[in-house]
């Protein structure tokens, strides 16, 4: 077979304005979900190390369920399954944000647990010896130190969540991959379009990595 492929740069350039329309959805889903996920991570991460079993067990169950199942299955369950339970449809954007929130929350819970447990117990004893309550000791002494140690894994989770949004094209969310699929359906330039989509994801994640490194350096400098 005499088939020579030539990359169509013009097709790639022409697709950019259409693909850019998906970036706001990608960022909205990822960062909206991550904000909720961070709150869930703090709550369930702290509950998972609580000495009271009736608080620790439900937190552990949540973490294991959402870490142990694929995010694609989770978003499909939320979008297609939950409407049968609640008796009404769920917006694709809402389903995407919920999936990122619940999934990232489980992983962030483990980051929080590991960060808090990495702080030497002597720090708590020092706070109590100064007359601080256990709550004051935790939020004034333990948490600031633990959070600085959490920055790298939290950054990694943010990057993973941004890339996970590419799976949500299956429920019709107009993010980057979905925009690419729509464009390809009318132009038949799959290689060029998905190449541009990959470059856009790379630009987003590299920018975030740079910002996180700057934050991490400032955090270490303040220690």
Automatic annotation (TrEMBL):
It is a multi-pass membrane protein. This is Amino acid ABC transporter permease. The lineage of its organism: Bacteria, Pseudomonadati, Pseudomonadota, Gammaproteobacteria, Pseudomonadales. InterPro entries: AA_ABC_transptr_permease_3TM (IPR010065), ArtM/GltK/GlnP/TcyL/YhdX-like (IPR043429), MetI-like (IPR000515). It is found in: Cell inner membrane; Cell membrane. Belongs to the binding-protein-dependent transport system permease family. HisMQ subfamily. Keywords: Amino-acid transport, Cell membrane, Membrane, Transmembrane, Transmembrane helix, Transport. Residues 23-212 form the ABC transmembrane type-1 domain. The chain crosses the membrane at residues 25-49, 61-82, 193-215. The keyword Cytoplasm does not apply. It comes from Marinobacter salexigens. Part of the binding-protein-dependent transport system for glutamine; probably responsible for the translocation of the substrate across the membrane.
């Amino acid at each position: 077979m005499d088939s020579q492929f030539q990359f169509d740069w013009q097709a790639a350039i022409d697709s950019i304005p259409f693909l850019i329309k998906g970036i706001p959805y990608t960022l909205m889903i990822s960062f909206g979900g991550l904000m909720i996920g961070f709150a869930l991570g703090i709550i369930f991460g702290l509950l998972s190390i609580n000495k009271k079993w009736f608080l620790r067990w439900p937190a552990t169950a949540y973490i294991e369920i959402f870490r142990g199942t694929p995010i694609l299955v989770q978003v499909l369950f939320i979008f297609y399954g939950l409407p049968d339970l609640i008796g009404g449809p769920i917006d694709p954007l809402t389903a995407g944000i919920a999936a990122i929130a619940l999934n990232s929350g489980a992983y962030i819970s483990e980051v929080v647990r590991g960060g808090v447990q990495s702080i030497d117990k002597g720090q708590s004893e020092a706070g109590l010896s100064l007359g601080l309550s256990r709550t004051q000791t935790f939020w004034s002494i333990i948490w600031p130190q633990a959070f600085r140690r959490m920055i790298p894994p939290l950054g990694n989770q943010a990057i993973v969540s941004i890339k996970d949004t590419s799976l949500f094209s299956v429920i019709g969310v107009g993010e980057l991959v979905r925009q690419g699929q729509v464009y390809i359906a009318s132009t038949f330039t799959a290689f060029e379009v998905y190449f541009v989509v990959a470059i856009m994801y790379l630009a987003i994640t590299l920018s975030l990595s740079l910002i996180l490194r700057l934050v991490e350096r400032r955090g270490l400098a303040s220690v």
